[in-house]
Design a protein that fits this description.
The complex is a heterodimer. Chain A has two domains: 224 residues, 3-Layer(aba) Sandwich (Rossmann fold); 63 residues, 2-Layer Sandwich (Alpha-Beta Plaits), CATH 3.30.70.20. By secondary structure, chain A is α/β, with parallel strands linked by helices. By secondary structure, chain B is of the alpha/beta class. Chain B has two domains: 219 residues, Rossmann fold (3-Layer(aba) Sandwich), CATH 3.40.50.300; 46 residues, Alpha-Beta Plaits (2-Layer Sandwich), CATH 3.30.70.20. Chain B contains eleven helices and eleven strands. Chain B has a nine-stranded mixed β-sheet, with helices on both faces. In chain B, strands 4-5 form a two-stranded antiparallel ribbon. In chain B, helix 1 packs across helix 11 and helix 5 runs parallel beside helix 6. The chains are: A alpha/beta, B alpha/beta. At the A-B interface, helix 4, helix 6, helix 7 and helix 9 of A face helix 4, helix 6, helix 7 and helix 9 of B.
Chain lengths: 295, 285
């Protein structure tokens, strides 16, 4: 079983559309949507949820007004400016739950024992069936943190399923950026496919995300999406990538069918058999060859 | 006034809106600063091409244990919720990359054996693009935690004039850190199922925040009732509908701004600015 993670650095380059299309092309695969704070793969694959779990990434502090001595030590020590005076002018301090990092220091040091530290549910995760195979996905409650932990959970459950049912591939849809959820989805995978676009920002972000996969020693290839909107930039990206020993495994042309497929709730290759589907198929074929050691 | 530009989905045009709004406001004679808080993938400099005057490294405080002073009592290890400090039989191990910098271990250590040292996580550039002030954070590759760096960028923004904060995508801690203390929040979306879905996540994430909010619909191809209804449902006005334009996309791909490439953009951003002022005024009443 090979674990393939699709990432991009820059957002909106087409990760999810391409991951969805790959899922339809892979014969036996399990899917993991690791873009847990803006998950979209389910919009293409309409999963039937089989198992549902709550996710708690940590705790939050809460000040009990009846015990509080108003000494202010918690406010003085909180490095995250989470202990605040409420807007209603009350003299009691409160903890802003968005700012609270969950370190628990305030609860530990409060001389009156007035601060409770309780685990909170930060989101949900699911094991589902789709027409492409099993899918593990999640929904981080809006505004919550700890996305890296949730990614690790989603990914390891998906890996268990893929190993257990003899799948050939685990396909991971990653999140944009290169911080904690990205690191959690990339580290230790067999191949990272970076989906980029031929723009100055796509190119700039590609170099940073390729630096990240190199840092974690994950073999990396590039797929240039909407490659024909600026062919000169696509060629430049290819030259820079090849110079660093990173292969460009595909160029996918711009086609309105990609957005139309999204509106229809289908993958690109289900929606059309036009040239753009051919581009994606060719890229997937290169990925198969690479992971099977034929290239 | 701090205006944050954010979006649930990546690639909807946050940077395009932020940069062009800055250029409009500078042109209108205001004192403006652009602050790039998308520290994982900062791109504003590609379009604004600022002259960088200062660069400083920034980090988070992590524990350094003095083995002579430590009596292995274990209090630090039992306090730390991130497993960043672990007390073994004969020594204390620290894992700086897991540390959130709360300072708890150093504060509670009865033997005063823990000092804090700075672990660099990124850098902050300051400079100017013509009359526009420019600040940008850049997270080091391999670093997981961007919120401490985002906070440092925000601390450097001036109190006077207008600051446009370019926020990271998503709805989790980095995005919330960037928008949490702004005076006005602009959400950028696109008329696709992914765009709408992630806009709704973002509207849910920010509904408890006190500042007024507005939506910018980018790359619009005719009317989009579904997005308009969604904004209505959350009581957030749509302040601008920017038409899809191949010229803008081509200019963007080359690192040019819509402002430079397409003459009609002045009106779009003039309307957006008066929408923000009206909306901010209404909510302040």
């Amino acid at each position: 079983m090979k674990e393939i993670v699709v990432i991009s650095g820059k957002g909106g380059t087409g990760k999810t559309s391409i991951t969805g299309a790959f899922a339809g092309l892979a014969k036996k695969c399990v899917l993991a949507d690791c873009d847990v704070d803006a998950a979209d793969l389910h919009l293409l694959l309409q999963p039937q949820v089989r198992e549902r779990y709550e996710f708690s990434g940590g705790g939050r502090a809460e000040i009990k007004a009846e015990k509080c001595l108003k000494c202010g030590l918690c406010r003085q020590l909180c490095r995250f400016d989470a202990v605040r005076r409420p807007a209603d002018g009350s003299s009691f301090l409160t903890v802003n739950s968005l700012a609270c990092e969950g370190c628990g220091l305030c609860a530990h040091i409060c001389p009156a024992g007035a601060i409770e530290f309780k685990p909170v549910v930060d989101g949900e995760w699911y094991v589902s069936d789709t027409r492409m195979g099993s899918m593990v996905h999640a929904c981080l409650y809006p505004g919550e943190g700890n996305s890296g932990k949730l990614v690790t959970l989603v990914r390891s459950r998906a890996r268990e399923i893929a190993t257990g049912n003899g799948s050939d591939y685990l396909l991971i849809d990653g999140s944009p950026g290169l911080g904690c959820p990205v690191i959690a989805s990339v580290a230790g995978s067999d191949l990272a496919v970076i989906v980029t676009e031929p723009t100055v920002s796509g190119e700039h972000d590609l170099l940073r995300i390729a630096g990240l996969t190199k840092h974690f020693r994950v073999p990396t290839v590039i797929c240039i999406n909407r490659s024909d909107i600026n062919s000169a930039a696509s060629d430049r990206i290819a030259a820079v990538a090849e110079a660093q020993g990173v292969k460009v495994i595909g160029r996918v042309r711009y086609d309105k069918a990609v957005t139309e497929a999204q509106i229809a709730g289908k993958t690109v290759n289900e929606y059309t058999d036009g040239p753009v589907a051919g581009d994606i198929l060719a890229a997937w074929q290169r990925i198969i060859n690479l992971t099977e050691g034929k290239e | 006034m701090k205006i944050a530009v954010a979006s649930g989905k990546g690639g909807t045009g946050k940077t395009t809106v932020a940069v062009n709004l800055c250029l409009f406001l500078v042109d209108a004679g205001l004192q403006v600063t652009y602050a790039d808080c998308d520290v994982e993938e900062p791109d504003g400099h590609l379009f604004l091409k600022p002259e960088i005057v200062t660069r400083r490294r920034t980090g988070i405080p992590v524990p350094h244990v003095d083995p002579e002073a430590c009596n292995l009592c274990g209090e630090c290890g039992s306090l730390c919720r991130y497993s960043a400090i672990v007390v073994l039989k004969d020594r204390v191990m620290t894992f700086p990359e897991l540390c959130h910098g709360c300072g708890g271990c150093a504060y509670i250590c009865p033997a005063r054996a823990i000092a804090e040292v700075d672990r660099p996580i990124g850098s902050i550039d300051r400079g100017n693009a013509g009359k526009l002030g420019f600040i940008s954070g850049c997270l080091d590759i391999g670093q997981a935690m961007s919120p401490p760096l985002i906070k440092e960028v925000l601390k450097e923004t001036p109190d006077d004039g207008v600051t446009i904060v370019d926020a990271p995508p998503g709805t989790s801690c980095p995005a919330m850190t960037a928008v949490g203390d702004c005076d006005y929040l602009l959400l950028v979306t696109e008329p696709t199922p992914f765009g709408r879905h992630d806009l709704e996540l973002m509207l849910k994430a920010v509904c408890s925040l006190p500042m007024p909010k507005g939506v910018v619909m980018n790359r619009v191809n005719g009317p989009d009732a579904a997005t308009e209804e969604l904004c209505d449902k959350y009581g957030v006005p749509v302040l601008a509908r920017i038409p899809e334009d191949r010229l803008v996309a081509e200019a963007y791909s080359k690192g040019l701004t819509a402002w430079e490439a397409v003459s009609g953009y002045r009106t779009v951003f003039a309307d957006l600015w008066s929408g923000i002022q009206k909306d901010a005024g209404r909510c302040g009443e």
